Amino acid sequence: MHTQLLKLDPDNPDLEVLHKAALILNQGGLVAIPTETVYGLAANIFDPSAVAKIYTAKGRPGNNPLIVHVYSVEQAKSLVLNWNDTAQKLAEAFWPGPFTMVLDKKDLVPDCVTAGASSVALRIPKLFVTRKLIEIAGVPLAAPSANISGAISPTTASHVLKDLDGRIEMILDAGPASGGIESTVLDIRSNPPTLLRPGLVTVQMIEKIIGPIKQFQQQHLQSGAFPSPGMMARHYAPKTPVINVENSGIEMLEKLKKEGLKVRLLGFHKIEDAICLPENPVGYASALYAALHDLDAMGLDRIVIALPPNTPQWLAIRDRLNRAATPAD
Ligand code: AMP
Ligand code: MG
After folding, report:
1. CB within 6 Å of ligand 1 — which residues?
2. Is the confidence at residue 114, as pLDDT, over 90?
3. DSSP element (H, E) containing 291
4. Cα of 175 to ligand 1 centre, how many Å?
5. Which ligand has the nearest atom to the CA of 147?
6. DSSP 326
7. Which atom from ligand 1 is nearest to the alpha carbon of 197?
8. What is the distance in A from the centroid of ligand 2 to the CA of 119?
9. How confident is the model at residue 82 (pLDDT cuts 50, 70, 90)?
10. pLDDT greater than 90 at residue 230
11. Which CATH superfamily is domain 4-220 in?
12. DSSP classification of residue 46
């Protein structure tokens, strides 16, 4: 299959291009779409054979449910049984944005989208171009990250091309994704709601709106038990083995170099053989996956990562870095 790559202005998109993309989606094809978090691989949720193509193109395990992208709160409400006060408050606070809510689904949402679960995960993406595409397509779009399952998520169209060229009909290139890591996922069916995946909308931001929530994240990373499918221990991972350290990483870098290994450091110091990332979570998230893609392309023996501090603001970043460092089975 030939994969078309088309450029778009994220704020003032060419409607003709969006209509072309919408036509592919309406005919059961796959389109990689820009979002403010990472690039997504989109299909019409009401077309089970199109949804099945997402799993095939990504090599995604069938038990890992998909996030459904909608363009309005009304469209979100049309897919769920129990839109309540909590959902309304959270939507008003964080939509459009990098925040996903899990609610009980209506029967009209096909089981293949939710990996058989009776719940559905929903969000309204922030980029105007993404919302406009959903509106023109006229259907909600299931869209996981547009990469081979388990690998580093794409933050540019060229990252998508590297993994999915020839496997999908179209890639819409609206420039680098500014958020840089995947959305926060909150299950609001439990009382209090449960954080399934940390992201740029932080626990503190959520608790300010709806009061205390439950956090499973820290426990999973230790016990390996996941309350929701898809929370694999290894994920977001470069092919190069990753070593995480709770310090500057310089000592580990030097040690491995002495052993004759080809190694680079991802850290906070501007030194030789290192990529230096911003010391704030938002800036770090925005640059992280591009840095991992670059490091992975260098043919290294190891990537050393200097972990940011173990504080609430860095929860989402440390979650991704811990999964990136988990060895393949
Ligand atoms: P991604 O791989 O970035 O598309 O993320 C999808 C993630 O959202 C999954 O791995 C789950 O953690 C979460 N998720 C999606 N749908 C559901 C659902 N119906 N119930 C619980 N979690 C879900
Ligand atoms: Mg993903």
Report:
1. 64-67, 102, 114, 117, 119-121, 144-145, 182, 185, 196-197, 228, 230-231
2. yes
3. helix 281-296
4. 25
5. 2
6. S
7. 12
8. 19
9. confident
10. no
11. DHBP synthase (3.90.870.10)
12. T
* C-alpha to C-alpha distances, 164 to 7, 117, 153, 315, nearest whole angstrom: 17, 27, 12, 30
Q: Specify the residue for token string 């609430």.
A: 312
pLDDT in tens, 240-258: 999 999 999 999 999 999 9
Domain with CATH 3.90.870.10 in the chain: 4-220
Alpha carbon of 256 to ligand 2 centroid (Å): 30
pLDDT digits (tens, 9 = 90+) for 144-166: 999 999 899 999 999 999 999 99
The distance of Cα 293 from the centroid of its chain, to the nearest Å, equals 15
* 38 CA: nearest ligand 1 atom: 3
Task: Outline which parts of the chain fall under CATH 3.40.50.
Answer: 242-324
Residue showing tokens 């970043």: 317
Report the mean per-residue pLDDT for the chain.
94
Cβ atoms 45, 110 nearer than 8 A: yes
Nearest residue CA, atom 2 of ligand 1?
144
Are residues 79 and 120 in contact, defined by beta-carbon separation less than 8 angstroms? yes
Give the pLDDT of residue 227: 57
How close is the Cα of 11 to the center of ligand 1, in Å? 28
Give the predicted TM-score (pTM) of the model: 0.94
Range with the poorest average pLDDT among 94-103, 118-127, 228-237, 301-310: 228-237
Distance (Å) from CA 146 to ligand 2 centroid = 7
Q: What is the C-alpha to C-alpha distance for residues 63 and 70, in angstroms, rounded to an integer?
A: 22
- What is the band of 229 on the pLDDT scale with cuts at 50, 70, 90? low
Confidence at 228, pLDDT banded by 50, 70, 90: low
Over 90: is that where the pLDDT of 212 sits?
yes
Ligand 1, residue 196: give the atom nearest the CA.
12
CATH topology classification for 242-324: Rossmann fold (3.40.50)
